[in-house]
Amino acid sequence: MHIDNARELKARLLSGVVQASSLDQPTGVASVGISVLPSGGADGPRYGLAVRYSGNRGEVLADSARELAARTAGDEVDIREIGLVQALTAPTEPGTWAPGALQAKVRPLHPGLSIAQRDVTAGTLGGFVRIEGSDGLYALSNNHVLANSDQAALEDPVLQPGPYDGGTAADRVGRLARAVALDAGGGNAVDAAIALLEDDQVDLEYPVGRLVGWTDPDDEVAVEKVGRTTGWTKGRISAIELDDVAVQYPVGVVSFDGQIEVEGDAGAFSAGGDSGSLVYRPDTRQAVGLLFAGSERGGANGAGLTFCNPIGLVLSALGATLVL
Fold it and tell me: What superkingdom heads the lineage (predicted)?
């Protein structure tokens, strides 16, 4: 269907379940967005309704979506049970990944490396930005990676590698400079922060080379990322404009609107510790999103789904421009 029709279905579905959800206050995930379907060829991109759910709250939404599909949209309604959605810092207990180059101390800095505020386990350095009025160079990642989910103070040290990967005070590469606050009341658009680097000699290369810009995705494009835990992975955008993505943080559940969903080509696109990775189109070398969360399941072969903030919203919220 046309994207405008998909948006209309999304609004209809939400209008039917919001009142019941707000009254009962059940728990779980109940997200609705625009699914990006396999290409329509000469007719251009095809869209449908994306419903992602878990728990009691999600069941209410899923039941309504199934009724809507039976009446109108049929197979253009993509309903998936996804389990818990979590911010993807590294776990606090030992994991099963093999140590790699991205988890080591590396200079000069480059995208994909382990990085974190001193009280966080580890996340990923997504890329580099500048802000107007400053000559400094800044590292880009998530709030929950560089600002400890709003618990850090400005000027707090940022380490590479992150503490979970052995980073200590001697591995400081910068200090927290700016973070977009997370609102527990919902309606968040981004989980983003930047750290002012002490050394502006960095490597801007990604696996596909240097990026040339950024774009808003609107179809089922192939994407990639390089992250601290799973390294270089490939996938595709499976949904856009996904609202009410409820994410479990160490400080509680935080909800996001207007998000991008990515499904891995071979297993999960990301795992704990990949938060902060910059997601990009390999064909055009354009950034599309900042990775910040993932679900337990819902993707191909039982793997989880990955969620990203649109990069345009990230840059706008931070008052930043990508360094290319």
Answer: Bacteria
CB 223 within 8 A of CB 236: yes
For the chain, list the domains and their CATH numbers.
Answer: 1-81 (3.30.300), 101-205 (2.40.10.10)
Residues 4-18: tens digit of each pLDDT: 888 887 887 777 654
3-class secondary-structure state, position 243? strand
Q: In the structure encoding, which two tokens stand for residue 113, read together?
A: 């490396």
* Closest C-alpha among 250, 300, 246, 274 to residue 83: 246
Q: How much helix, strand and coil, in percent to the nearest 5, is found in the chain?
A: 20, 40, 40
How do residues 38-67 score in pLDDT, each as one tens digit? 766 667 778 888 888 887 666 777 777 777
Q: Report the alpha-carbon distance of residue 286 to residue 200 in Å, rounded.
A: 22
Decide: 254 and 309 in contact? Cβ < 8 Å: no
- Residue 287 backbone phi and psi in degrees, to 5: -70, 145
pLDDT range class, residue 151, cuts 50, 70, 90: very high
Distance CA 266, CA 234 (A): 8
